[in-house]
Amino acid sequence: xxxxxxxxxxxxxxxxxxxxxxxxxxxxxxxxxxxxxxxxxxxxxxxxxxxxxxxxxxxxxxxxxxxxxxxxxxxxxxxxxxxxxxxxxxxxxxxxxxxxxxxxxxxx
Length: 108
What we know:
108 residues, three-stranded mixed sheet, disordered C terminus
């Protein structure tokens, strides 16, 4: 499982991106839930910078190779574009896509 917390300090919002991999899905099918634990509990999840304005994006990837390449090259927007390549923006999905929300990102 990949986890990418993105803080947009300009808009004061956090986008939590969770990518379920094939092995995670197989475990989940067997009744083993995927969990994200806070760092204080031994996990990888940091404190959410803007809990009052947090969005959650959950994606599934069988082949995470291209995604790891984006991340290795510090191309976070490229990773998000890759994850959203098949997105169908429907009424009720919010005001804008993740890409637009993080476009002016000024991460610490």
